[in-house]
Amino acid sequence: MQASSSRNQPQQRAFWLRQLHQWHWISSAICLVAMLVFAITGFTLNHAAQIEAHPVVSQNEAQLPANLLKALQKARDDEANAVPPQVSAWLNSEMGIRDPGQAPEWSPEEVYVAMPRPGGDAWLRVSLEDGHAEYELTDRGWISFLNDLHKGRNTGAVWNWLIDIFALACLIFSITGLLLLKMHAANRRSTWPLVAGGLVIPLLCILLFIH
């Protein structure tokens, strides 16, 4: 029985090595690009004060047709949670505004829609008296855009779900990497000192330099 058990140990080790290597490379392939982007944006966020942003502001004005103004006034009276579809279609074709998405803020005189986005901001105001529409878009550049993607700021539900999926892939990548280190540690004496350093160095920085 002992001889049979000793023969099975190398087979079990080989099985787990194959499984861990497979999960390790699959998870690394899934999260590779995301890890690169998050590493780069971690640097840019850490040095945000040194990286100057140069916002570009663009403005657009137009006159809402009478029939659409009436539809907007009716939506105000109904306290609608969205801009009427026909008004949204006109804003898209005439002013280049995609579906506002955000709930409008109604007042007796106007409707205001805030449209924050990654790397910028935008707002729309339409007078409910004469149909005069104003739109302003602020673009803070691609670095700000990537930083907001990193933080999940104004990115919507789909991107937030994607971040969760990448985080899970990174977690699998890290855990399988740790288990592979454990299986190879006997032949690599520096394994656990390096792993311990990765824990102790940040912990010392927190205790000594962060107050």
Write a compact overview of the structure shown.
The chain is of the alpha+beta class and 211 residues long. Helix content is 60%, strand content 15%.
What would you say this structure looks like, in words?
The relative contact order is 0.13. The chain has helices at 2-46, 66-77, 85-95, 142-151, 156-184, 191-209; strands spanning 56-63, 105-106, 110-114, 120-127, 132-139. The chain is elongated and about 85 Å long. The chain has a domain at 56-143. The chain has a five-stranded antiparallel beta sheet, with no helix packed on it. The mean pLDDT is 90. Helix 1 packs across helix 4 (142-151) and helix 1 (2-46) packs across helix 5 (156-184). It is an alpha+beta fold and 211 residues long.
Layout of secondary structure:
Blueprint: H1 2-46, E1 56-63, H2 66-77, H3 85-95, E2 105-106, E3 110-114, E4 120-127, E5 132-139, H4 142-151, H5 156-184, H6 191-209
Antiparallel strand pairs: 1-5, 2-3, 3-4, 4-5
Protein name: PepSY-associated TM helix domain-containing protein
Keywords: Membrane, Transmembrane, Transmembrane helix
Transmembrane segments: 23-45, 158-180, 192-210
